[in-house]
Backbone:
């Protein structure tokens, strides 16, 4: 089985081709250039290096979130375009699952943390000594809440992800000897892990069509959250879509102004 | 009916709140024009929310593209090249179309042609046939060819350009402040007509007297082709506030008609002046506001009076659509424009920039 893996949910742009149990190629760049400029040229590079005919791949596995909304969409649209043109299925791999899977064989609890700003992280808890087991599935947590959860687990925990440089001191202070940090070659999102997990998904028939696929952001858009909040507080009239909007005064177009 | 020299463009557009795809033959004949509009979704927010627009694009884009191919009765293999809007627009929204178009072009081995959204609006005037066109709508005899004067009016743009050749523009006039469409949106919101403002004002104005209220007509000193709409917008808002303070009822129809009349007069006078000065004999309009019924009627009348040939796209081709992107991409393709796999979305792409 051949799987093309795509990972663009964070600053890391990564693409890989995994055949059964071998990573044939992986190209990972963790630099400021936008994924829009890097991702497809990187795919083209590994395709040429491997003298690969893309129509030979069985499926396209894409890191489906959570993560940067825009980053997720670039990976998603790339996968959907490839899937449409090649008539291949897609595999939606939860980003945090793939991150944990990258540390397969580790005996400790695995805790990928993605910085979601304002002390929030996207995180999950996993064991992956023999196979990936989810202890806590993908969610958005305040870092203090995560630490409380980890204190309840009473286990050694290995952290990885771009939340580590942001929260490392706090984690060490609170968890002491119980915390470990993955080394540089294993501590960020990687497309080979997405593709390798994709192989398992494909064996189980867990694919979706290119048309069906969409990222899983874990969070609503800010404007939606603010509108819901405003409605809850009775500050905005319930508005039927497609109808005119009263005086319009309580519905400014600017996201930030929705919640007075 | 397929000819070896024919160029078939699959075009994709996602710069704002419409997810669109189309198949266009030789830049003139539209075989399919699929548009998934998000207007209803954004209405509850009073305007387009970029993050929500981007999310909707990713959910709809494959359906829209597949639909466009199916409606055209074509397979991806039969397509010559992929055209896509890469700016200007909302960056998150543009990125969906750009990434999708690049992946399709790459995987199918087709050339990729990036298109400027506004050049697409201008190219809507090149289209001679499209699905759903009524028999009486064949106003494109003879087909429009450069050079001509084009007024580009939308929510984000008010430009007066000389189209010297396909894809070659000289900008001779522009707005100094608000775009015409922006003024429509703001006035619509102020009088409670809501979003999208252009069509709502147009509709309301049909029942009103365009001379009921005399709003000011701004001229830009020393720049005969430039526009300014912020003074007019302020005058309308002041009028509303004044009426409210006095406890007077506002006649929305009269206000809409009077405001619209002021905008239309400014647009028509400068465009006709430009067509006469530059001696092109041909005048076209483009962009969302080009579907405004009062603008179309006034421009048609002025063109007849001045012996100018008037070109205007069907309203469905004035709103954001991919057919116009396919028309523009065709002429770019013919010129040899090819974009690489590193094509990026450029939210503030300038007119005439490549």
Residues:
């Amino acid at each position: 089985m051949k799987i093309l893996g795509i990972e663009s949910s964070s600053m890391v742009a990564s693409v890989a081709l995994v055949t059964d149990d071998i990573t044939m190629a992986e190209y990972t760049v963790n630099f400021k250039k936008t994924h829009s400029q890097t991702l497809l040229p990187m795919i083209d590079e590994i395709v040429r290096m491997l003298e690969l005919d893309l129509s030979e791949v069985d499926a396209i596995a894409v890191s489906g979130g959570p993560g940067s909304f825009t980053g997720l969409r670039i990976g998603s649209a790339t996968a959907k375009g490839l899937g449409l043109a090649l008539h291949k299925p897609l595999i939606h791999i939860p980003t945090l699952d793939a991150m944990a899977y990258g540390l397969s064989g580790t005996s400790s609890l695995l805790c990928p943390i993605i910085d979601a700003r304002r002390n929030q992280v996207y995180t999950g808890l996993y064991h992956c000594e023999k196979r990936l087991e989810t202890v806590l599935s993908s969610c958005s947590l305040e870092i203090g809440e995560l630490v409380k959860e980890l204190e309840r687990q009473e286990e050694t925990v290995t952290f990885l992800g771009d939340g580590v440089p942001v929260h490392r001191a706090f984690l060490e202070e609170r968890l002491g000897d119980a915390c470990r940090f993955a080394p540089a070659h294993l501590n960020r999102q990687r497309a080979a892990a997405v593709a390798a997990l994709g192989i398992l998904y494909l064996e189980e028939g867990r694919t979706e069509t290119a048309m069906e696929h969409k990222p899983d952001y874990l969070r609503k858009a800010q404007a939606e959250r603010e509108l819901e909040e405003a409605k809850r507080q009775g500050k905005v009239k319930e508005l039927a879509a497609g109808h005119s909007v009263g005086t319009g005064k309580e519905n400014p177009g600017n996201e930030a102004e929705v919640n007075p | 009916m397929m000819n070896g020299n024919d160029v078939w463009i699959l075009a994709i557009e996602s710069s704002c709140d419409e997810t669109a795809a189309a198949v266009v033959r030789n830049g003139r004949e539209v075989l399919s024009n699929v548009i998934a509009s998000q207007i209803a979704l954004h209405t509850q927010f009073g305007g387009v929310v970029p993050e929500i627009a981007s999310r909707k694009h990713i959910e709809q884009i494959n359906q829209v593209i597949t639909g466009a191919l199916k409606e055209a009765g074509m397979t991806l293999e039969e397509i010559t090249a992929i055209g896509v809007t890469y700016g200007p627009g909302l960056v998150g929204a543009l990125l969906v179309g750009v990434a999708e178009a690049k992946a399709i072009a790459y995987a199918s081995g087709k050339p990729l042609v990036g298109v400027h959204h506004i050049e697409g609006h201008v190219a809507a005037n090149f289209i001679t046939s499209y699905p759903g066109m009524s028999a009486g709508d064949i106003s494109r005899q003879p087909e429009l060819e450069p050079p001509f004067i084009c007024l580009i009016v939308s929510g984000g743009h008010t430009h007066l350009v000389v189209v010297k050749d396909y894809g070659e523009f000289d900008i001779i006039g522009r707005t100094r402040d608000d775009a015409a469409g922006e003024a429509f949106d703001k006035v619509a919101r102020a009088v409670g007509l809501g979003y999208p403002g252009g069509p709502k004002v147009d509709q309301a104005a049909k029942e009103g007297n365009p001379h009921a209220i005399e709003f000011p007509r701004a001229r830009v000193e020393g720049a005969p082709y430039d526009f300014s709409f912020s003074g007019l917008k302020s005058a309308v808002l002041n009028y509303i506030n004044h009426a409210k303070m006095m406890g007077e009822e506002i006649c929305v129809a009269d206000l809409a008609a009077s405001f619209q009349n002021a905008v239309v007069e400014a647009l028509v006078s400068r465009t006709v002046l430009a067509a006469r000065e530059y001696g092109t004999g041909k005048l076209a309009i483009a962009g969302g506001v080009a579907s405004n019924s009062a603008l179309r009627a006034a421009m048609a009348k002025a063109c007849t009076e001045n012996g100018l040939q008037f070109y205007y796209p069907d309203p469905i081709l004035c709103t954001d659509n991919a057919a116009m992107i396919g028309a523009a991409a065709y002429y770019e393709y013919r010129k040899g424009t090819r974009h690489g796999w590193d094509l990026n979305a450029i939210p503030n792409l300038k007119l005439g920039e490549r």
In short: The beta strands of chain A are 2-7, 12-19, 22-30, 59-63, 90-93, 109-115, 120-127, 133-142, 157-160, 179-181. The helical segments of chain A are 35-49, 69-86, 95-101, 143-153, 164-175, 191-203, 222-232. The two ends of chain A are 55 Å apart (CA to CA).
